[in-house]
Amino acid sequence: MLQEKEKRNPICTILWHDASYTFDEQLPKEIPLPSITSGFIISESAEFVNIATNVDYDEKTNTVSPVNGFLIPRKSIIEFKKVGYLNDQ
I need a labelling partner for 52 at 20 to 30 A (CA). Which of 8, 31, 39, 41 fits? Predict the structure, then answer.
């Protein structure tokens, strides 16, 4: 039973600093507030977390397919919390 859970996409909440402002010509005077993103983890690596914020759901196979989301660098993550899995009892 545990192996089935490991294959599923966990639902997570990630608190992180979006660093996209660093491409602006002039840096902001204050660091922007952190962002909170919640969704399904599609993949993870040592460098990034790929989180889908909108997904298509197949009821027959109980699987999710990403529609859109974020690729978040691990160095930007302040807090990463796995909340659970879809259809957990």
Answer: 31
- Which ranges of 2-88 would DSSP assign to H, the alpha helix? 2-7
How much is the CA Rg of the chain, to the nearest whole Å? 15
Helix residue ranges per DSSP H, 1-89: 2-7
Q: Token pair of 29, please?
A: 């005077």
Give the separation between CA 73 and CA 87, rounded to whole angstroms. 28
Backbone angles phi, psi at 53, to 5 degrees: -90, -25
| CA dist., res. 6 & res. 26, Å (int) | 44
Mean pLDDT, rounded, for 48-66: 89
pTM equals 0.77
